[in-house]
Write a structure and sequence with these properties.
The strands form two sheets. Strands 2, 4, 5, 6, 9, 10 and 11 form a seven-stranded mixed sheet that branches. A hairpin with a 4-residue loop joins strand 7 and strand 8. By secondary structure, the chain is an all-beta fold. It starts with a strand and ends with a strand. The relative contact order is 0.32. 0% of the residues lie in helices and 50% in strands.
Length: 123
Amino acid sequence: EVQLVESGGGLVQPGGSLRLSCAASGFTFSSYAMSWVRQAPGKGLEWVSAINSGGGSTSYADSVKGRFTISRDNDKNTAYLQMNRLKPEDTAIYYCAAKYYRGSRDPGEYDYWGQGTQVTVSS
């Protein structure tokens, strides 16, 4: 059974940091690109960041570039999203998603999804 389980969300003040984790099982993690996608209240899915299967290539949405860092540990079958200098507009449910071989900025192209973790940025 394929599973992606996110953790690390919570309530943080503006300017603070959080680190999200995504633990994968049931598929060959090292063959899949991983992305983080978020959904703010009342809005659609927004692609945030992607990392290729080997971890050597990353990409970011302009809205988070310079503040967020995506990484992965293929030995632990886990992807991460380090979020710094958080803003209220980063408030959303954050999902991790897996796509075979090559990543994409289109959430519709992803094969597997987690259940999401809530991030709330508020004073």
